[in-house]
């Protein structure tokens, strides 16, 4: 190169690949702006545990915008009348769909086509009349379909053919008048195991009208159909285990036409309400003699009941008898004669008043006896003769007194239900024999005195229900005999005092319910100290209130280190109160504190310093006009916060509350007119927020909130579409999300679009320029520098250091060194500037070039083809040209080493311009007269303004 530096760089060659990549990058960025990620705010729905709950919202159509990721969708109890093809098009992962109790009368073909993952579909209680062709197309994975309580009259033969995985089909309480409607339907359900067509007014059941091949059915429910004929003429139900054909309002006998072996696998049979003739009894006995284990005969004709019981007890495998609603006022001693194999007997809802002492003599293997919903006034002696009894129920009778002998010999009893009676008092001896009892229910009686019934006995009792009685106090040691007790229900009594030691001995107790009593703050100070393993304590609806927040000397829960749930909401007295600052002392494992509606005015900042594991806090319905951020610092793991109806005017306290893990926030019915962006940003884990019932201001301060509620992909804002404005007056009643925000905000998306577009265009222009005009820009840069240097040197008027600067290409260096330099320097005495010899090391190349050109009287350009191709040579001739044009002096000499045709010079416009103005020397043309060439060159180097110098040069040039 002309400056002595070899240029190994080459111009990059832009091609189609580069343009494609640039255009693709542009499209990707544009698409990210015009199609932003949206949130999952759904009108009238909330998302909970991956389920969209849209029930009870008066919806008339399936709402749009349900997240595509939900696996459950509850649309029950609305007013939807039609299902369209577009309703579920994006819910390909939905597994459970509940649309019961709507007004659906029409379902478009293909409405379920995209629900390829659906497992259960509930269409109960709608107004469907018929099931059309391919109605359930796409539901290949559906396993359960329920269509009870519609008005279905007709079923197309292809309506269910897509349901190849269906195992349960319920179509009861409809208007199907003939079983043939299922003939072709059943054939398309190869995996069906449970079929229910109860209460459809079917006149007959004939298996050949329903199917002609064996089915996998294990349960068949046909009750309340008034069959006159029940016919099975082929072995189409080889796996049937349960058969229900009872009808409680049928008056005529049922004609049985069943092959002896066709129901040989049935173990559960319900013939409730049927008119059974002697021949029918014989038929039943023959059909089910070796398989039947459970027989239900509810609402039978009483005159025939004894014979039916005797018949059933002759079947050796029968162990369960259900005999409800048979009006058995008196149980005689011979009623169950022969029932030695019965282990479970249900006699509930029979109005029984008396039971013979020997009524159960034959039931020595009985384990479960249900005598609930009868008219017994005392515990019958007959039950004491059942040594293997495990479960006994006297629920909802008229028992007013328990005697010491009532449960004699029932040492194996595990569960005893005596609730909803009229028992007023207990004796110490009443449960003395129940050493194996685990569950005792005595709720909803009139018990006012425990009578030491729980001080010594019941060593294995784990659950005791004494709620809804008349207890007024718990004395020391009342439960000390219940060392295995885990759950104790004492709610809805009249308890005013818990004595110290009330729960002594209950070291295994984990749950105690004391809500809806009359406890005061000073009546239970040390009552809970013995409950060292208690997990849940409920003190709702009592009279617990404190006048101030002063620390208590003996905090009531200081020994309950295992307690996880403490509930104290809604105290009866409506006086304003506080909670002592150390009220929660000792509750190091508390995870849920419920203090709703306690009329609290204030929380001391140290209230939760004792509960580091608190995750759920409910302080709703208190008169808390302000909350300090310091209150929440000790409970940084809080996940759910309820602050509804607290008179709070702002949520700004959350900004500094350090609730980084809060996921659920309910703040209904407060006075939040504006929700600030800082509040939401301070809750990075927030997934659900409920702000219903607040008085929003519809101005520019809330614009961001409306947009965030709709678009945020993480946080669900419950019922955001129904938020209404209260201010200003002109917009009162208008919905917040309908607010015209154009006057409030600049279209940020549009600005982003313009900014990104301009950036991309600039990127493309710069890239294009770099690839195609890189060198032209470099030229312009150096030309600019040359102008600066030209001005600098022009102003300085410095004397020339050299006679000539030689501009040449490295490839032409041999000619310069061997020919040019000897002639001009050695023979003529000119002082030449050569780059390899005279350039200053370490100095920028362009500075060396400029200094050399402006520091020499003239510039000699040794031009060859290699010279024309050199970038640095081109820059040297540009700088020399600027000097030529600026000084208007003959400072440039062109010497051609090669004959270069004019056509080849067309690409080098600067050389062509110089040739038009400047004379030049050609070395090839001087081959015959080289001396003439050197004479002309020396003459061109002479300074015409300095005659003396000219003479000196000529003299030097004439030397031999």
TrEMBL record:
One GO CC term on file: plasma membrane
Keyword Membrane in record: yes
Segments forming domain TIR: 800-941
Transmembrane segments: 21-42, 750-773
Protein origin, superkingdom: Eukaryota
UniProt subcellular location: Membrane
Record bears the keyword rRNA processing: no
SMART domains, per the entry: LRR_SD22, LRR_TYP, LRRCT, TIR
One GO term (biological process): innate immune response
Keyword set, alphabetical order: Glycoprotein, Immunity, Inflammatory response, Innate immunity, Leucine-rich repeat, Membrane, Receptor, Repeat, Signal, Transmembrane, Transmembrane helix
GO molecular function (one): signaling receptor activity
Membrane topology listed for this record: Single-pass type I membrane protein
Entry-linked Gene3D superfamilies: Ribonuclease Inhibitor (3.80.10.10), Toll/interleukin-1 receptor homology (TIR) domain (3.40.50.10140)
Family, as annotated: Belongs to the Toll-like receptor family.
Name of the molecule in the record: TIR domain-containing protein
């Amino acid at each position: 190169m002309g400056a002595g530096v070899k240029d190994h760089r080459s111009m990059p060659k832009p091609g189609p690949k580069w343009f494609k990549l640039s255009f693709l990058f542009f499209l990707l960025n544009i698409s990210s702006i015009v199609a932003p990620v949206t949130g999952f705010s759904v009108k009238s729905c909330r998302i909970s545990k991956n389920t969209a709950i849209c029930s009870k919202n008066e919806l008339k159509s399936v709402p749009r915008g349900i997240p595509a990721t939900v696996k459950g969708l509850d649309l029950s109890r609305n007013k939807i009348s039609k299902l369209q093809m577009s309703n579920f098009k994006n819910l390909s992962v939905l597994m459970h769909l509940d649309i019961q109790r709507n007004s659906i009368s029409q379902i478009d073909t293909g409405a379920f086509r995209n629900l390829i993952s659906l497992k259960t579909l509930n269409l109960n209680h709608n107004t469907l009349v018929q099931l059309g062709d391919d109605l359930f197309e796409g539901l290949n994975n559906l396993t359960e379909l329920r269509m009870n309580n519609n008005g279905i009259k007709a079923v197309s033969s292809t309506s269910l053919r897509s349901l190849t995985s269906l195992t349960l089909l319920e179509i009861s309480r409809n208007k199907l008048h003939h079983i043939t409607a299922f003939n072709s339907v059943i054939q398309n359900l190869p995996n069906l195991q449970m079929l229910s067509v109860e209460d459809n007014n079917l006149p007959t059941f004939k298996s050949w009208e329903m199917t002609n091949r064996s089915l996998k059915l294990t349960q068949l429910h046909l009750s309340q159909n008034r069959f006159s004929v029940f016919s099975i003429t082929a072995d189409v139900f080889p796996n049937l285990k349960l058969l229900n054909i009872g009808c409680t309002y049928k008056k005529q006998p049922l004609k049985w036409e069943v092959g002896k072996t066709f129901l040989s696998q049935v173990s559960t049979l319900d013939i409730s309400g049927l008119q059974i003739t002697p021949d029918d009894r014989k038929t039943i006995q023959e059909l089910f003699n070796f398989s039947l284990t459970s027989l239900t005969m509810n609402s039978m004709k009483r005159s025939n009941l004894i014979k039916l019981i005797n018949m059933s007890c002759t079947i050796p495998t029968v162990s369960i008898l259900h005999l409800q609603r048979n009006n058995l006022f008196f149980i005689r001693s011979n009623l169950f004669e022969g029932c030695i194999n019965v282990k479970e007997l249900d006699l509930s809802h029979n109005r029984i008043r008396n039971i013979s002492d020997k009524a159960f003599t034959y039931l020595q293997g009985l384990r479960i006896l249900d005598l609930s919903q009868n008219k017994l006034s005392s515990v019958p002696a007959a039950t004491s003769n059942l040594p293997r009894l495990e479960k006994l129920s006297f629920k909802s009778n008229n028992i007013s007194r328990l005697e010491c002998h009532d449960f004699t010999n029932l040492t194996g009893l595990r569960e005893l239900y005596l609730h909803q009676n009229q028992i007023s008092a207990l004796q110490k001896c009443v449960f003395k024999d129940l050493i194996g009892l685990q569950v005792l229910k005595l709720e909803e009686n009139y018990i006012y005195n425990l009578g030491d019934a729980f001080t010594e006995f019941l060593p294995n009792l784990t659950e005791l229900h004494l709620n809804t009685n008349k207890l007024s106090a718990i004395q020391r040691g009342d439960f000390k005999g219940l060392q295995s007790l885990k759950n104790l229900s004492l709610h809805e009594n009249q308890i005013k005092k818990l004595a110290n030691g009330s729960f002594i001995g209950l070291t295994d107790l984990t749950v105690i319910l004391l809500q809806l009593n009359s406890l005061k703050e000073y009546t239970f100070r040390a009552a809970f100290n013995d409950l060292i393993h208690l997990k849940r304590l409920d003190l709702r609806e009592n009279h617990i209130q404190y006048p101030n927040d002063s620390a208590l000397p003996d905090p009531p829960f200081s020994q309950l280190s295992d307690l996880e749930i403490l509930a104290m909401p809604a105290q009866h007295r409506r006086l304003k109160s506080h909670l002592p600052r150390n009220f929660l002392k000792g509750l190091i494992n508390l995870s849920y504190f419920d203090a709703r509606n306690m009329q609290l005015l204030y929380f001391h900042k140290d209230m939760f310093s004792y509960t580091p594991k608190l995750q759920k806090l409910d302080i709703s319905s208190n008169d808390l006009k302000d909350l300090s951020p310091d209150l929440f610092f000790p409970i940084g793991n809080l996940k759910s916060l309820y602050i509804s109806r607290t008179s709070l005017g702002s949520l700004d306290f959350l900004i500094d509350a350090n609730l980084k893990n809060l996921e659920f926030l309910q703040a209904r019915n407060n006075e939040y007119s504006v929700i600030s962006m800082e509040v939401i940003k301070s809750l990075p884990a927030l997934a659900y927020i409920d702000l219903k019932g607040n008085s929003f201001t519809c101005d520019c301060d809330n614009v961001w909130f409306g947009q965030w509620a709709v678009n945020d992909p993480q946080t669900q804002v419950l019922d955001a579409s129904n938020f209404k404005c209260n201010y200003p007056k002109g917009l009162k009643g208008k919905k917040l999300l309908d607010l015209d925000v154009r006057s409030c905000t600049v279209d940020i998306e549009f600005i982003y679009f313009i900014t990104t577009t301009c950036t991309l265009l600039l990127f493309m222009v710069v890239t294009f320029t770099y690839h195609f005009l890189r060198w032209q820009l470099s030229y312009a840069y150096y030309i600019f520098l040359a102008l600066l240097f030209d001005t600098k040197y022009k102003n300085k008027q410095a004397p020339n250091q050299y006679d000539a600067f030689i501009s040449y290409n490295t490839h032409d260096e041999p000619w310069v060194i061997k020919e040019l330099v000897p002639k001009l320097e050695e023979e003529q005495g000119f002082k030449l500037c050569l780059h390899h010899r005279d350039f200053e090391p370490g100095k920028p190349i362009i500075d060396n070039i400029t200094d050399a050109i402006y520091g020499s009287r003239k510039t000699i350009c040794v031009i060859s083809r290699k010279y024309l191709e050199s970038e640095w040579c081109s820059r040297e001739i540009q700088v020399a040209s600027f000097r030529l044009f600026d000084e208007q002096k003959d400072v440039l000499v062109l010497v051609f080493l090669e004959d270069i045709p004019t056509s080849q010079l067309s690409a080098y416009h600067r050389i062509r311009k110089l040739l038009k103005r400047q004379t030049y020397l050609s070395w090839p043309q001087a081959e015959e007269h080289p001396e003439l060439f050197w004479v002309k060159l020396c003459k061109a180097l002479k300074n015409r303004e300095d005659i003396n110098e000219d003479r000196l040069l000529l003299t030097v040039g004439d030397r031999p």
